[in-house]
Every structure is written in C-alpha cells, then in structure tokens.
Specification:
With about 250 residues, the protein is of the alpha/beta class. The chain contains 8 helices and 10 strands. Strands 2-1-3-10-4 form a 5-stranded mixed sheet. It has a 5-stranded mixed sheet with strand order 7-6-8-5-9. β6, α4 and β7 form a beta-alpha-beta unit.
Amino acid sequence: MAGLAGCGTDEAGSAPSGSASGVTGTVTVFAAASLTESFTTIGKDFEAANPGVKVTFNFAGSSALANQIDQGAPADVFASAAPKNMQSVVDAGNADGSPTTFVRNQLVIAVAKGNPKGVRALADLTRPGLKVAVCAEQVPCGAAATKALAAARVALTPVTLEQDVKGALSKVKLGEVDAALVYRTDARAAAADVDGVEFPESAEAINDYPIVVLKNAPNRTAAQAFVAYVRSDQGTSVLTAAGFQAP
C-alpha cells in the first residue's frame, strides 16, 4: 500500500483529516530538529482534530533519525530535512510508498541580538577571532552550509561541528560562538535571542523536506492521517508562518 495513498489528500491544500474515522492511539513521528516548533504545534492541532490520538515526537538530526529507523527503531512517520537522509530509509525498504516534499528551508547566519560583530555576509565569518558554529556535513544543515560556502567561495574553519541545527543555534544563544549557519526557521523561532542575517548564496543550498509513512508503522492509519494533516491547509499555514517555503 502506498504510504500516502490512504492519506485522504493528494494535494497540499486539500482538507485535513479532522473528521477522520478510525484514527486512534499513539502516532510516533521522527522529525528533523528544525521542525521542532512547527511540528509540536501541528501535533497539538492534530490531536485536537482527532480526539483519542496522541502524537509523540523524536526530534534530532535527520541522519541520526534515518540510522535509528534503519536499525529497527519503531516509528510511524519520518520527516527529513533533506532527500539524502530520506533516501537511505527508502533504499533500506523502510518507507511505505514514495516520500513527498512538503516544505523547503533556507540558511541564514544567526548572530547575537543586535549583531554586535557586524556580520553582513559569509565572508565576514572568516574574520580573525570570530567564532563560528556549523552543522556536521552529514547533517542536512551542514550539507547546505557546505554548498553555500562553496557558492560564495568562502573557506571557513568553524570552532565546532554540531549534530543538528538546534545545537549550532544554541552555541549562539549561549554566547559560545559569534555566529552560526542555521535555517531561517530556527533563527525566527529564536528571535528573542538571535538575529538572522540573510545572504544571497543561501539560494544555492535550499533544502527540500520529504515526509513518508514508514513500512513497519505500528499505527499506519494514524500515520497516514498525520501526514495528510501536515500537507493540509492547516498544517501548511503553521509551517509557512514559521518561515518554511512551499515546495
């Protein structure tokens, strides 16, 4: 059975499963760390629309989540921050049908509130004494950073390589680094603590986010309904408000 065939929607703008029948129990969602705020909200909305359903999340770097799934961790849905990590799950035979891209995301330079170091471009990150955090290259935000830096022809030596975007962002929030390459959505979610500096090369490294019901989903019915809700008008409005782009 195709992973999205039973979702009750073929287009992102279709009606969600608010009146879905037979949707009960717990649905376990493995999702990229950059989806934390948006999916937490969507999860609560989904529960409200489907009384009797409980959504639990495992937020982490997409590469780590893909490894957990491929090693047999029980989960119903996987939402990755990049197609590469999703493809490993597909290649391992753990996806139920074809993944669907539901949003896209773009990098910014996160700096302390007020931008005290005056960072305006990627090249500024190479200034002597400026401490920069970047995600590890196997993580989607790290792969995107590598592409953006190459597009800008900037050779950067970060002081730390983080395993997910929240780790990189936290270094800025804690004052441990002066800047970090993070997603626009993460900088926006932390707007009380950081500013996001846009840079043109981020257009060369936009990440597509795919989502899929997993083959061995313990609660396939709820998993299909959740994916449908993410792609519905209600789910899309939450995601776009957070700064995600339509695919």
